[in-house]
């Protein structure tokens, strides 16, 4: 189905959400149509943030907003859905548009498999009526579903379209870029060089894929790294948990701007405890690149935020010489450090994916830490 037809049938005046590769056609179309005009489209920090924005929109207009998300974000909407939106609380209507990663019978990455299996059950448990949209769904079928949803929304209930892979098509071409010169893979390569045999906790997305391939190219194996292939936004908290229990080891966290923003409160907790052996590196390209390149809100002063959260050392770099210098300083400093690396968009077209199983990664990493 053409994505513009989908948008016309849905008829929403306001969209908010977290970009998803399964919904890239929708995200690109919204970007082309509205950009990030706050009256019509806001890219949220996380899915709960989006649900709350939708609630505010309804309070101000009396209408239902559309919230888009990957099904992995269902967990982030449970609280606002159950304690804010639900008809037994405030009865605030919202239309969710959910990309179905890990759909049973469709090949996907390991972190999506269980989430895919419980996607519809979670909606049922939350009492959210849903309709599944696939390549075969016709406009007439979609209109019938939407008519039923309008009745529910008018009564203060929520509803959801669950979108299968390839269901939405014909999005306008949108080109995302920035003016930064450093490349993420080279940033990670230089970090690996400086970190040596120190443990690294790496965020989800292309950063973990690039770290895996750098280790392969170096012939190093993968015991040094914990690849947080799912659970976006939580790599820094994992790193804090490790750093507190392994004070004799320098612990590195490779984070992304979108992931950092998703659960930014973690930085306040890190700053409160100030582990002297933790180096938090945020590679900032201002984009949700793994799912298509849609912008994040990372134009804010991340260094200022880190300092305000209690990081004693925080710096931003935009070239490789400065990067090398600051990485080396962070390793030898012995105090909590924050490093923002300004990064361009783009990755190798032949970038692969980790070939080791998640539990294999966990066991080898724990063995390297001396846990096992």
Fold and architecture overview:
The protein has 372 residues and is of the alpha/beta class. The protein is 44% helix and 17% strand. It has helices spanning 3-10, 24-34, 47-61, 74-85, 110-125, 139-154, 184-195, 206-218, 235-245, 257-262, 265-273, 302-308, 320-333, 358-369, and strands spanning 15-17, 41-43, 65-70, 94-99, 129-133, 159-163, 200-202, 225-227, 251-256, 278-284, 287-288, 294-295, 313-317, 337-342. Strand 13 (313-317), helix 13 and strand 14 form a beta-alpha-beta unit. Helix 7 (184-195) crosses helix 8. The longest helix has 16 residues, at 110-125. The chain is elongated and about 60 Å long. The mean pLDDT is 95.
SSE blueprint and pairings:
Layout (H helix, E strand, L loop, with lengths): L2 H8 L4 E3 L6 H11 L6 E3 L3 H15 L3 E6 L3 H12 L8 E6 L10 H16 L3 E5 L5 H16 L4 E5 L20 H12 L4 E3 L3 H13 L6 E3 L7 H11 L5 E6 H6 L2 H9 L4 E7 L2 E2 L5 E2 L6 H7 L4 E5 L2 H14 L3 E6 L15 H12 L3
Parallel strand pairs: 1-2, 1-3, 3-4, 4-6, 5-6, 7-8, 7-9, 9-10, 10-14, 13-14
Antiparallel strand pairs: 11-12
Helix pairs in contact: 1-6, 3-4, 7-8, 7-13
* Share of residues in strands: 15-25%
N-to-C order of helices and strands: HEHEHEHEHEHEHEHEHEHHEEEHEHEH
* Count of beta strands: 14
Secondary structural class: alpha/beta
Report the average pLDDT across residues: 95
- Gyration radius, to the nearest Å? 21 Å
| Low-pLDDT residue intervals, each spanning 5 or more residues | none
Largest beta sheet: what is the strand line-up?
Answer: 2-1-3-4-6-5
CA-based shape:
elongated
Largest sheet: 6 strands, parallel
